[in-house]
């Protein structure tokens, strides 16, 4: 339905804005804060645990709501990952991501959101991050996979859901 | 104290963002997934709109609070490049980052996401610790 297409975009924009404002308010945008949170052996700043806690709590309400719905409000079916396989790609990929996150203190959301501040450092990080993503998709063996054009559709799926 | 309240309030908004996308569109608010698919040219319209909203976030925050959110980057330029490459490559290989696995995956009680979050939290903490040894 045409109207659904428009509403999907509206919901997507609202979601993006909420995410960006939430990151700004939470302190997650600041690599120094993030690294302070990760520095449990040093001058630990535990405040960012409240970001994840608050986010997961509200997100869980969404997940519970979704369970009672036959389809999402503006689409014919859900596009949520069903893959349950814990494999090397998941662990090695996550481990790699964690090293980069620790080194700089930026993960994809905050890195992109902070582009609006126009800082050369975060812009450089984003360029490298995008290059890393493209590199992953271009290396079929190491990246192992078809981040399936059709099947993909959500952030958590590997396309290996055989 | 303020630090904790703003962290919690920001977290609630991030959770609301994820809930909206799940309930309205049936999709995961995973930034690395959305960005990665955008780079592949799939779901370009929604991907672009989401990223625009995300980037507008700090601007809207500034409008209401009067100040930009703090962003203090201490990493050198080579480190920024290496870190960026690792974050981009790793988040795609592991099918998610802090948002997709952390905020959405944990909320859905996904075992894969629990493993992912435990793994990247561990390596990030170790990385910061090891870096501390050399400073």
Number of distinct beta strands of chain B:
0
Beta strand % of chain A:
under 5%
Largest interface: A-B, 122 and 114 residues
Q: Domains counted in the coordinates of chain B: how many?
A: 1
Structural class of chain A: mainly alpha
Poorly predicted ranges of chain A:
145-162
- The run of helices and strands of chain B is HHHHHH
Identify the overall geometry of chain A.
globular
**How far apart, in Å, are the first and last alpha carbons of chain A?**
31 Å
Q: What is the total tally of β strands of chain A?
A: 0
Name a few traits of the molecule.
heterodimer, A: 162 residues, mainly alpha, 2 domains, 6 helices, 58% helix, globular, disordered C terminus, B: 135 residues
Question: How would you describe this structure to a colleague?
Answer:
The complex is a heterodimer of chains A (162) and B (135). By secondary structure, chain A is mainly α. Chain A has 2 domains: 2-67, no CATH class; 88-138, no CATH class. Helices cover 58% and strands 0% of the residues of chain A. Chain A is built from 6 helices and no strands. Chain B is an all-alpha fold and 135 residues long. Chain B has one domain. Helices cover 79% and strands 0% of the residues of chain B. Chain B is built from 6 helices and no strands. Chain B starts with a helix and ends with a helix. At the A-B interface, helix 1, helix 2, helix 3, helix 4 and helix 5 of A face helix 1, helix 2, helix 3, helix 4 and helix 5 of B.
Task: Describe the secondary structure blueprint for this structure.
The complex is a heterodimer of chains A (162) and B (135).
Chain A lengths: L1 H25 L4 H8 L10 H19 L20 H17 L3 H6 L6 H19 L24
Chain B lengths: L1 H24 L5 H10 L3 H22 L11 H17 L4 H10 L3 H23 L2
Helix pairs in contact in B: 2-3, 5-6
């Amino acid at each position: 339905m045409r109207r659904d297409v428009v509403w999907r975009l509206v919901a997507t924009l609202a979601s993006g804005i909420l995410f960006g404002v939430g990151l700004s308010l939470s302190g997650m945008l600041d690599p120094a804060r993030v690294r302070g949170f990760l520095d449990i052996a040093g001058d630990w700043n535990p405040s960012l645990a409240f970001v994840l806690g608050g986010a997961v709590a509200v997100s869980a309400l969404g997940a519970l709501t979704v369970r009672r719905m036959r389809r999402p409000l503006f689409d014919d079916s859900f596009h949520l990952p069903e893959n349950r396989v814990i494999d090397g790609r998941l662990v090695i990929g996550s481990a790699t991501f964690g090293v980069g996150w620790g080194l700089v203190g930026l993960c994809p959301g905050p890195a992109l959101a902070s582009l609006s501040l126009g800082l050369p450092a975060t812009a450089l990080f984003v360029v490298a991050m995008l290059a890393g993503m493209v590199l992953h998709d271009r290396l079929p063996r190491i990246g192992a996979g078809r981040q399936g054009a059709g099947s993909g559709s959500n952030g958590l799926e590997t396309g290996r859901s055989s | 104290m303020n630090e904790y309240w703003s962290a919690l309030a920001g977290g609630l908004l991030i959770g609301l963002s994820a809930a909206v996308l799940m309930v309205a569109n049936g999709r995961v608010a995973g930034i690395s997934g959305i960005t990665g698919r955008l780079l592949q040219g799939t779901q370009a319209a929604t991907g672009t709109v989401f990223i625009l909203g995300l980037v507008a976030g700090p601007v809207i925050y500034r409008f209401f609070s009067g100040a930009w959110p703090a962003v203090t980057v201490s990493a050198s330029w080579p480190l920024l490049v290496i870190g960026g490459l690792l974050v981009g490559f790793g988040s795609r290989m592991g099918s998610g980052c802090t948002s997709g696995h952390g905020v959405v995956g944990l909320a859905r009680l996904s075992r894969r996401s629990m493993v992912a979050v435990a793994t990247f939290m561990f390596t990030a903490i170790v990385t910061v610790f090891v870096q501390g040894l050399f400073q």
